[in-house]
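Q: Could you fold this chain for me?
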Amino acid sequence: MCSENRTIIEFKDIVKVYGKANVKTYALNRVNLNIKKGEFVSIMGASGSGKSTSMNIIGCLDYPSSGEYLFDGVNVDKLNKNQMALLRRNYIGFVFQGFNLLGRTTALENVELPLIYRKTPTKERKELAFKALKKVGLESVIYNTPAELSGGQQQRVAIARAIVTNPLVLLADEPTGNLDSIKSIEIMNLLKQLNEELGITIIMVTHEEEMAQYSNRVIYFRDGHIESSLKKGYK
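A: Sure. Below is the predicted structure, expressed as structure tokens.
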């Protein structure tokens, strides 16, 4: 049995190159990174710094050009596309800036989607989706469509959908980018609560220092390198 303090995400000299010959661009240049189970990490950096490329590799949406990426001890570089898809489906939850909800379906049905892909039986699927919505405080609006929800509520539905499969890692890409300051604080408090109470490892890309303060470590990227990794105290 692995230790609960185990490393979940590990980059070993990760390089990501775009282009060929004289027009090569190094999005990542020999990056080494370790994230342990239960951490809440923010990734920051200017446009083109490498933060989004890192998230794509962590989320198994892209391969590095060289180096090793280990997800909970598994060398992801040795997996084929089908195995990568299974890893994403079973162990990683995604939350995006734009919510990415299906407009004509209810909150409950949106949260059920990952379980449909898993072929979870209908009764169990609905029970799990309801529990996930309850965790984010939306048990009273499970039959509302996205158009009948506020932006903050829509992001809560997206978070419920991301956690319904009980993932090891939750990846949040600018989760407050489309929200006002009050709703942003509500979403960050929710992510902090899920991290503390459920032990979900959260990795968040953000350009807002105030939002990054909710995490317990902030990693700054610059020109394809990690410039610094600073531990923070929770708000």
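A (continued): DSSP finds seven helices and ten strands in the chain.
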